[in-house]
């Protein structure tokens, strides 16, 4: 394969978006390595008319009893253990490789190539889960799954999703410069919007759920 052939396939109508996203991922990791900074990259998904969920960079902590299908899906992919940036980058790379070589060896109409990207993405996520599974013990050691070693009561942070009544949402707090994501509920059931500054006032340690109320600033 010549360099020109590589460019033609990489930036074909089917692969251009994947190639650009992969390039941005490379830039992100280079920036992270060179600066030591971690950019907050989230997946924003409107799951219902009343609330949205923002899955931040880092680890997603899902309580075992949470009925949300989205949370169960994240847990199925081991995103309660594996940092989401690792998972997304590897999934994207696998999807790009599959689409690239498929279109190189078996040229397809543009519409067919675009349709095939979706099963390739699903296959990429499943393969990523399998590839990263042996590293789960390592990720468990370096992540913050053991929140109970920290005193969270009284800490303040920002909601990453809206919460109301018994609805479970996400809150981001910082331990030093290290971001952590906790599962939270509204203490009195009142509605707290995405982005609201809140304080942890109670907890259920066995379920890893924290109760929050709006921070009072004087």
Radius of gyration: 20 Å
Within the largest sheet, what's the order of strands? 3-4-5-7-6
Low-confidence stretches: 39-57, 144-149
Strand runs, count: 7
Question: For this entry, what is the oligomeric state of its chains?
Answer: single chain
Separate helix tally: 6
Strand content: 15-25%
Morphology: elongated
The helix fraction, in percent, is 40-55%
Q: Based on helices, strands and strand pairing, what is the structural class?
A: alpha+beta
From the N-terminal CA to the C-terminal CA, the straight-line distance is 65 Å
Q: H/E element string?
A: HHEEHHHHEEEEE
Query: How is the biggest beta sheet arranged?
Result: 5 strands, mixed, barrel
Give average pLDDT, whole number. Answer: 76
